[in-house]
Amino acid sequence: MPKIHYKSRSCRCSAMSRSAIRAPALHLHAVLGKADGSVVGGHLIEAYVRPTLEVILIQPPSYLRKRKDPETGLALIDVA
What we know:
Layout: E1 11-19, E2 26-33, E3 39-43, E4 66-68, E5 75-77
């Protein structure tokens, strides 16, 4: 998937992530509101913020924790 470079003022409408299971890393999805009212979204690789960005980190409830599925190797929400 190609990287899209977006260089304009925008408003962060949403940003969600889960930390990786094996390494301290973020997989971040973001939705940005543009001046004309449209939005652009996807994986956020790099961003510069001015003047501030409010970030709230929470621990998800235990019933939403992901565990590696031995059959597929994927990190899935374990509802058992």
